[in-house]
Write a structure and sequence with these properties.
It is a single chain. With 211 residues, the chain is an alpha+beta fold. The chain is built from 8 helices and 7 strands, in the order H-E-H-H-E-E-H-H-H-E-E-H-H-E-E. The strands form 2 sheets. The chain has a 4-stranded antiparallel β-sheet with strand order 4-5-7-6, covered by helices on one side. Strand 4 and strand 5 form a beta hairpin. Helix 4 packs across helix 5.
């Protein structure tokens, strides 16, 4: 209602529009202010002022904060950023190679940042796979580790992955490889499967130098 009003509104106007009590309207409006979805200030209605004008009323307007909520978690803004980064590449390499390089660099830097923030450094083996799974989950993959295997239960690029699996799934596996390199430089993804290409699940087997 506040958004559609096009101008600041008070709790009385909201209560009347929604058919609820003023106190209930004020409670929910103040909750929205606390979450930075609305902003509020006190003002007198137009034409009123001076002695006898009464106390200023609290008026609410939409906040300027930009909020995006996706359930399940999606990160299309990350995909757009990597595509833009790839579009600026002047190496002359094949477009997919450029895109996957951008994904790998992103994953590697995210892994290094995780280590710098206090995560264990390069460890190898199942410990590294578990660390990669934890980091992937922060970006919407809902990943888990089972020994040397990684499994993603969700995809932050879901809609576009099914639209263009060769390109988008290639990109996200490059992100996986980059993260893995930050925790175990000698490891590699030996085999992968992806739902977007008809497989049952998005899986990757991690092979270490010793294995």
């Amino acid at each position: 209602m506040v958004r559609d009003a096009g101008e600041p509104v008070n709790k009385g106007q909201v209560a009347e529009a929604l058919g609820i009590g003023r106190r209930l309207a004020g409670f929910h409006l103040d909750k929205l202010v606390a979450e930075d979805l609305l902003s509020a200030d006190f003002q007198r209605p137009g034409g009123r002022g001076g002695p006898g004008a009464g106390r200023p009323a609290k008026y609410y307007r939409r906040s300027g904060t930009e909020i995006v909520v996706n359930l399940p978690e999606r990160h299309y803004e990350l995909l757009a950023g990597l595509l833009l980064q790839a579009s600026r590449d002047t190496s002359g390499d094949a477009p997919q190679q450029v895109l996957e390089r951008a994904g790998y660099e992103f994953g590697f830097e995210a892994g290094l940042a995780q280590v710098a923030a206090g995560a264990p450094g390069p460890s190898g083996g199942a410990a590294a796979v578990a660390q990669v799974a934890e980091l992937l989950s922060r970006y919407g993959f809902e990943a888990g580790a089972d020994g040397d295997d990684l499994c993603a239960c969700s995809c932050p690029f879901e809609a576009l992955a099914f639209d263009d699996p060769e390109r988008v799934c290639g990109l996200d596996r490059a992100i996986w490889r980059g993260m893995l390199a930050a925790f175990d430089p000698e490891a590699r993804l030996a085999s992968t499967t992806t739902r977007a290409l008809g497989d049952e699940a998005c899986l990757a087997h991690v092979e270490t130098a010793a294995g």
